[in-house]
Structure formats: C-alpha cells, structure tokens
Design brief:
The protein is an alpha/beta fold and about 200 residues long. It has one domain: Maf protein (Alpha-Beta Complex), CATH 3.90.950. About 30% of the residues lie in helices and about 25% in strands. The chain contains 6 helices and 7 strands. It has helices spanning about 15-20, 45-60, 85-95, 135-145, 170-175, 180-190; strands at about 5-10, 25-30, 65-75, 80, 100-110, 120-130, 165-170. Strands 1, 2, 3, 4, 5, 6 and 7 form a 7-stranded mixed β-sheet that branches. Helix 3 packs across helix 4.
C-alpha cells in the first residue's frame, strides 16, 4: 500500500465530492493554470494538456505525493465549449447545444511527484440535449447558475432534466473526475481501495 499523500489539484467542490467516494484521505490544492486552448488544438489534446499542467503546478509543493489533475473540454460540431462564466455566454452555449450531441472529454493525469511517473487518460461522454425552448434555458440558468461548468449544465443537479440521452465511459467523468480511470491508475501506484 502506498504511503504517499493523495492530492487533488483542483478547487472544484464537485471533483472533491467525487474523490471522497473512494474513501481515501486526500488534500486539495488549487492549481494556477491558464485554461485557454492553444490555436488549432483539438479538444481531446486540450483536456490532456490542462490535466497534466494542473498536476504539475501543484506537485512542486508536494515532493512525495500522488497528484491528481483533471480537466474537461466540451466539443460541439468541431468547436470547443469552455466554461461560460456569464449568463449571456451560458444562454448562447445552451441554445447552440439544444437538440444536438456534444462530446465531453474529461482528462485525468496522475503524477507521482516522488518518481516523476505520469499516467494520463481521457473519458469520453456523449450528451444529447432536449430541444429546449428559450424559456426553459432561461429558467434553468436562473435556478442553477452553472457558469463554471463546461457546456453550461450540471448533470449532477437540475441539468439532468435538460438531457435527452447520455452515453460514455464513466458518468462520474461528466461531473468532472473519471473515477473508473482514476482507480486503475491508483492501482498501478500500489494504492489499494479494499484493504481491511
């Protein structure tokens, strides 16, 4: 069993809540990373790069830790959708997404800051929104205000009512942390979840 500290390189309460499901002690640390996509960078690549950068940004302060970085990028018809940050941007995103399928790439990086070993992976989830009216979009945004979520909706909250269909690698990834991938990476680092 690894004796290394587990560190979540995120200030997201949603990622923290997901990680608590594994019943392992961990700390959180906010990474200082510019999340702007690079010119012509595919969404899949953006998510991996940012997950790695987040893990590396925090690792320097934790020389003997397993550092988890994660990032999510939504792709709709070849265009990346980031966090809307404002109500107007969220309205535009949801109007563009209604009746269509968006691919959410949620990348994961696990960095062993002692050995330098870095594992990465990406969970993909396809989400099809209902053909929402402008009034439904406005009502949803006023209630939930998901302005810090890629794609302007929280599937773990009221946003589930916007969704017609979901398919993918890991439902947890849509919320922000691919736990199926993470548990496999932790096993490779000799972290056991079921020790008595």
């Amino acid at each position: 069993m690894s004796s290394q500290l587990l560190v979540l390189a995120s200030s997201s309460i949603y990622r923290s809540e997901l990680l608590k499901r594994l019943q392992l002690p961990f700390e959180t640390a906010a990474p200082d990373v510019d999340e702007t996509p690079l010119p012509d960078e595919p969404a899949h690549a953006t998510s991996i790069r940012l997950a790695q950068e987040k893990a590396r940004a925090v690792a320097a302060a934790y020389p003997n830790a397993l550092v988890i970085g994660s990032d999510q990028v939504a792709l709709l018809e070849g265009r990346q959708l980031g966090k809307p940050l404002t109500h107007d941007n969220a309205v535009k995103q949801l109007r563009a997404m209604r009746g269509k399928t968006t691919c959410f790439y949620t990348a994961l990086a696990l960095l062993n800051s002692k050995t330098g070993n870095l594992q990465t992976g990406v969970a993909e989830n396809l989400v099809t929104l209902r053909d929402l009216s402008d009034a439904e979009i406005e009502g949803y945004l006023r209630k939930e205000q998901p302005y810090h979520c890629a794609g302007s909706a929280k599937s773990e909250g009221l946003g589930i009512a916007l969704i017609a269909r979901m398919a993918g690698d890991d439902p947890n990834a849509l919320i922000g942390l691919p736990l199926i991938l993470l548990t496999e990476m932790l096993r490779r680092e000799n972290v056991r979840l079921f020790q008595p």
